[in-house]
Amino acid sequence: MPGSPLISAHELHGLLETGSGIRLLDVRYRLDKPDGRDDYRAGHLPDAVYVDMDTELATHGAPSEGRHPLPSRETLQDAARRWGLNAGDTVVVYDDYRSVSAARAWWLLRGAGVAGVRVLDGGLSAWRSAGFPLETGAVSPERGSIAFDDLDEGISIDDAAAWPQRGVLLDARAPERYRGESEPYDPVAGHIPGAVNLPADAVLDGQGFASPAAIRSAFESVGVSELTHVAAYCGSGLTAAHTALAGATAGLEVAVYPGSWSQWSNTPDRPVAIGAQPGV
């Protein structure tokens, strides 16, 4: 797909073979193992730089800010310079689990004005399955000089509350969490009133993304069209960026609510809906 934010393992390998100067970022992160440095050192794409989710793509704050508050512009810029980024660089980000954490890096960098940023479809699994080489150890590039004038901060908690009146608010969590039957991470179960459920699985095909047509069909199944104002949230803001990436793959613009359910459920007096219906 022309202009796709995704890149296949074979396409990436071909570009790297030509010495294209692509900057590779390894965003290894999981809830059960937030620090992915050991896994990164054990095997990563050649010349890929490790990116830390908790200190570079997020910050720490009060529970009312959510579990993954956005970094400041200065923090992200300093991190990007550590990764060796310069103005005009083409960047490819990847991870080892369904591109969820890679999507956070993609969304932040795109929102900071990095036009040439893409995500390796299928991540590390796709690269390995294609038989392409890995490298061990850590990569420390020469410090870059990229400058960010601004940072897309997504939509606010008040924007999210009002969004169903102007468009479609997507909840990207698992159906049982949306319905309020299970909540393993946050203090309250349920969903934002008016939100509809579009789990991340609906836009995936294995570890990679489904086809643009299949993704568009998934969005359409919950009321999204080309004319719809769409926003997404999840538990902590990461999978919401993944939904935005899926939307971009299908030619749809999706705003992100970074605070997501972790912020909403930690904010007193915010209403909660339960069950399979959006609620009011």
TrEMBL record:
<dbReference type="Pfam" id="PF00581">
    <property type="entry name" value="Rhodanese"/>
</dbReference>
<protein>
    <submittedName>
        <fullName>Sulfurtransferase</fullName>
    </submittedName>
</protein>
<feature type="domain" description="Rhodanese">
    <location>
        <begin position="18"/>
        <end position="136"/>
    </location>
</feature>
<keyword id="KW-0677">Repeat</keyword>
<dbReference type="InterPro" id="IPR001763">
    <property type="entry name" value="Rhodanese-like_dom"/>
</dbReference>
<dbReference type="InterPro" id="IPR036873">
    <property type="entry name" value="Rhodanese-like_dom_sf"/>
</dbReference>
<keyword id="KW-0808">Transferase</keyword>
<dbReference type="GO" id="GO:0004792">
    <property type="term" value="F:thiosulfate-cyanide sulfurtransferase activity"/>
</dbReference>
<dbReference type="InterPro" id="IPR045078">
    <property type="entry name" value="TST/MPST-like"/>
</dbReference>
<feature type="domain" description="Rhodanese">
    <location>
        <begin position="168"/>
        <end position="273"/>
    </location>
</feature>
